[in-house]
Structures are given as structure tokens and as C-alpha cells.
Design a protein that fits this description.
The protein is α/β, with parallel strands linked by helices. Helix content is about 30%, strand content about 20%.
Length: about 220
């Protein structure tokens, strides 16, 4: 069996692809890229990729931006599709657009010896600066996938949060409204009635690592 056939079989068996947004420059952290902050002995980007894989995502696309070359050099991201977002300073929306374009086969994802993976039925979108959201919450949201029209979101005490599962039928709409730091919020607000909420407050803590004060959440 060829490598292409192996990848095709993987895609058929694993329609949900992890999409990790890890491009932020950490402006309120003195310009330290969030992807390279240390947590549990590894860069946050490695920690987040491991969580997505433990949640059942055999394929993971990672969007890089700030100091992307340093992230590539210091983080072990073997097997991931790495997507460069040259517009990362414009906010999370630009990273989400870049990641979805990579999944759709129209972006610039790279993996050793290959182009970006395509054929995904949904993206499980996770943020690199939320280490309190691990594999159990990701797996719950991932399990809500039914088909390309699926929209599933983690909820914390009934309030929508991350991760979010975006079926492929929604990618174009999400990309069209993802600007600044809003990500998919505008699109999800317009399609609220279609979203399946999955309570995750018992297995995850949805804090962000945004400021120096938040660094207390990181573990050595």
C-alpha cells in the first residue's frame, strides 16, 4: 500500500482533524510567544498537540505565527501539519482562516515530505493558551461529530467556550466572518440554534494565559 493510500484510509477513518491555533505573540506577556511558554516540562504547543491526539485526533494541524522558526526548532511537532500565518498580528481570526484553508486543501500547510492533509469532515478547534482544557473535554466535544454539518461546543456552567467542533459545511461561513480576535464567535452566534453544547466544567478549567498574572496556572 502506498503512502497516499495510507493517508486516504486515515482520512476515511478519522474525519475529525485537530486544529490548534498557536500563532499569538503574547503582547501582554512581554512579547513571549504563547506556543513556547513552558507547562509540565514542555512548550504549550506540544502540550496542546498531545491533548488533541489523546482525545482521538490522529491528524493535527497547527497554525504558527509569532517566532514560527523558533517554535519549529524548539517544539516536537512530528507528524503535525504546520501552517504559517503571516498575518498573525491581525488576531485569532486570521489564524482560524489560515487553519481552515489548510484543512480545505487551499492553504500552506507543510509536513515533512508532504502537503497539507485534506478530506476532513470537521475541525476540532483548540487554543494553545488554554492548558486547563485537556483531552477529556476535547474528547467529549469530538464525540459530538455526526457529519459535515455538525456544530459542537464545550460549555462551562452552560456558557459556550472551547474547544469547538466545526463541520466542514460551515468552514466557508466561519472564514468569511473571522476577523480580529473574534474567531468563530460571530458565525456561532448566528447559528446558535444549531450548536450542540457539551458540558465540560467537571473535567476542564477554561482559563486563558494572557497576562503575567495568568502564568500562575502553568506548572513546572
Amino acid at each position: 500500500m502506498t503512502d497516499n493510500e495510507d493517508r486516504a484510509n486515515d482520512e476515511a477513518a478519522d474525519p475529525v482533524v485537530g486544529l490548534l491555533l498557536a500563532a499569538g505573540g503574547g503582547r501582554r506577556l512581554g512579547g513571549r510567544p504563547k506556543a513556547l511558554l513552558e507547562h509540565c516540562g514542555q512548550p504549550l504547543v506540544e502540550h496542546a498537540v498531545a491533548a488533541l491526539r489523546a482525545a482521538g485526533c490522529a491528524r493535527v494541524h497547527v497554525v504558527l505565527g509569532a517566532r514560527a522558526d523558533d517554535v519549529r526548532a524548539r517544539a516536537a511537532l512530528d507528524g503535525c501539519v504546520l501552517v504559517d500565518n503571516p498575518e498573525w498580528e491581525q488576531g485569532m481570526g486570521s489564524s482560524l482562516r489560515a487553519g481552515l484553508a489548510s484543512l480545505a486543501g487551499t492553504g500552506s500547510g507543510t509536513r515533512a515530505g508532504t502537503g497539507s492533509g485534506t478530506g476532513a469532515g470537521a475541525a476540532l478547534v483548540s487554543l494553545v493558551d488554554q492548558p486547563g482544557i485537556g483531552a477529556p473535554a476535547m474528547a467529549r466535544v469530538r464525540s459530538g461529530y455526526r457529519d459535515e454539518r455538525s456544530l459542537v461546543s464545550a460549555a462551562y456552567a452552560g456558557v459556550r467556550g472551547h474547544p469547538v467542533l466545526l463541520g466542514a459545511a460551515h468552514w466557508a461561513g466561519v472564514a468569511a466572518t473571522a476577523t480580529g480576535d473574534r474567531g468563530a464567535r460571530a458565525y456561532l452566534r448566528e447559528h446558535e440554534a444549531e450548536i450542540a453544547l457539551v458540558e465540560c466544567g467537571d473535567v476542564a478549567r477554561p482559563y486563558d494565559i494572557d497576562t503575567e498574572a495568568d502564568l500562575v496556572h502553568l506548572e513546572p
